[in-house]
Fold:
Amino acid sequence: MYIVQIASECAPVIKAGGLGDVVYGLSTELENQGHCVELILPKYDCMRYDHIWGLHEAYLGLEVPWFGGVVTCTVFCGWVHGRVCFFIEPHSGDNFFNRGHYYGAIDDHMRFAFFSKAALEFLLVSNKRPDIIHCHDWQTGLIPVMLYEMYAWHGMDRQRVCYTIHNFKHQGVAGANVLWATGLNRESYYFQYDRLRDNFNPLALNYMKGGIVYSNHVNTVSPHHAWEARYSGISYGLGHTLEIHNDKFGGILNGIEYGVWNPDTDHYIAKNYNKDDISGKAANKKALRDRLLLADDDKPIVAFIGRLDDQKGVHLVHHAMYYALGRGGQFVLLGSATEQGINDWFWHEKCNLNENPDCHIELGFNEELAHLIYAAADIIVVPSNYEPCGLTQTIGLRYGAVPVVRGVGGLVNTVFDRDYDTTHEPDQRNGYVFYETDNNALESALDRALGLWSIYPEEFKKLAMQGMACDYSWKKPAEQYVGIYEHIRA
Structure:
């Protein structure tokens, strides 16, 4: 099968969050299973060019219709760790992708509308006719709209679209100008409720809603989050749209790239180990303590790795830090804040705890350090308010760090409580789960994890090894996606 992935990110060359990891990992596994996969991405000025091999001009003079005129683009081709990627570079005074950042511009809705238009135009004029176009998140929500309303009439009527929603919070909202920019034009047609009109703002168009309405299949990134999206407020106003289109909506759990996250081969960690012998974690704990100037004591290391924002339950991250220290543990935090207030809060904590030999706060993100923290941590906390899938807990499991998670989204599908889970046998359980958003709920789970570590160390080691035995690779999810591709192609 010939599959084209169109996205705003692909790790490691373009990565702002989990989306980039998913696009790369899924593409890799699809190719491993014998399919032909190509990716179309924006050519940002700030992407990691050192991860691209053989970058060259592949298509010159791509003319993209835009606001009644044309914007000329150059399409580059290169290999990102074996993946064939096309990068679209527009030559326009709008300077769409030369901003020094991926997201956060006031005209993001126009930037990615243009990218979607350019990606389809490139497929059209280069005579590429994939069986499946796989789009991701709001940035590409207009692709199925333009495909079926415009490009299907110009020789692209056999292409089918799978649309994956990674985060319902960001939906891409715009006014009528995007219709005139892309050539869709007909305001009265697209502003109808059953097409692109935002469910709560009659003067706005919603890119993500357009993706849901026009695609052949829609999924989010875990089965439980798909349920939440339909039956709770987690879909941020799109619940009714999902209900209307429920016959083509579901959830597929994300995998992680086992070639990247593998303690048996990881070159970022001090000593390799595997699920049959995790004694190497001790050397990694010492290496992390030496690097971060932590006390080299016989204490459990509790860690948090991820964004510091409301989605991730930042108030519980803060409480977990002090609770772990109060229980005689050590706490390591690696993450960057998405809001100034949260950043200031944790900078204050960093200064306050700077001399504490049992705590280190690293504000920012460092890939090499993340690997070492996973390898050294005994416990990884993921207290999210909502979590479509979550990669932190599955990477933690891979490295023998016992997860303590809140029971939402993909966390429910990957972490099974050692003491209370009734759907899995004891030897299949792998962590601790709590459900409320208050401090007491977090403490109830973290206390059980710390207690097992200190009182029954062999049982804790057994739990960690059971977590390492879980398979959260891309193999099964890729097979599920192929099943969807074959269904909508038929």
In short: Residues 104 and 344 are 20 Å apart (CA to CA).
